[in-house]
Specification:
248 residues; 2 domains; Rossmann fold; 9 strands
């Protein structure tokens, strides 16, 4: 009779799969890399910062109803506070293998549309799709704001400042054009982080509506798909990862 390894005994096997977005976890400081991998697969992940101790993870897990991921002695401490159903002891070595273990244990079905469906910076799952032409307008507006030294200007200060343009960005994107912030989250759009040459090379950009970080599809998407090809559920849908979020 085959003897099961400790990891095999921990894996739950059943027919009820769940999507990555349904799994809500918090990773303590020992599993920060694991958390980033899980987030790249679409899991709702809160990652503890280096200065935050395990008590913060416990509080976040209880308050936000997240499963706490930990390992070793810290896991034992967490277990004593929240119980077995509210935490999980990760025993694999290496962030990628640890993420795979978690996905398999919780029976998470990952598809290509889940890859990078969450912002890698803030964990947000809302994106605004924007063509390069409008991104160019935002870039020019940013240059004007920096050059003027003023972040809140009237909408008559330069050729890009007019009421119709301001209204269009507000209605289409939920963006306050005068200071380049999202009206709902008040997050500044981080247009300055994009090389100007890149704006004309990419057809579509995807802006996180929670933190303002700007993304576009590139080799990083294929790399994550390759790393998790052993658990990735392939589909025939001809769509990109961010469009899937926008249309869901």
């Amino acid at each position: 009779m085959k003897r099961l390894s400790a990891l095999e005994k921990k894996i739950v096997h059943n027919d009820e799969y769940q999507s990555p977005g349904k799994l809500r976890v918090v990773c303590d400081t020992m599993l920060q890399g694991t958390g980033r991998y899980l987030r790249s697969c679409g899991v709702d992940v809160k990652i503890m910062e280096n200065h935050e101790d395990h008590d913060v993870a416990i509080q976040s897990g209880l308050k936000e109803e997240r499963i706490i991921l930990s390992s070793g002695n810290p896991y034992k401490k967490i277990l004593s506070h929240v119980g077995q159903d509210a935490c999980y002891d990760v025993i694999s070595q290496g962030a990628q293998d640890q993420a795979t273990e978690v996905l398999r244990h919780f029976n998470v079905k990952v598809t290509p549309q889940d890859i990078f469906s969450r912002c890698q910076v803030c964990n947000g799952d809302e994106y605004v799709k924007m063509p390069s032409s409008d991104m160019t307008i935002l870039s020019d507006r940013k240059d004007f704001l920096i050059g003027s030294g003023d972040t809140v200007l009237s909408l008559t200060s330069n050729p890009y400042d007019n009421q119709s343009l301001s209204k269009r960005f507000e209605e289409e994107y939920g963006i306050e054009f005068s200071n380049l912030t999202f009206m709902k989250s008040q997050a500044f759009i981080k247009i300055e982080l994009i090389p100007k040459a890149m704006i004309t090379k990419v057809d579509w950009f995807y802006v996180c509506a929670t933190c303002g970080k700007i993304f576009w599809e590139g080799s990083h998407f294929s790399r994550i798909c390759d790393q998790f090809s052993h658990i990735l559920t392939l589909t025939e849908q001809d769509t990109n990862i961010y469009d899937h979020i926008l249309n869901s």
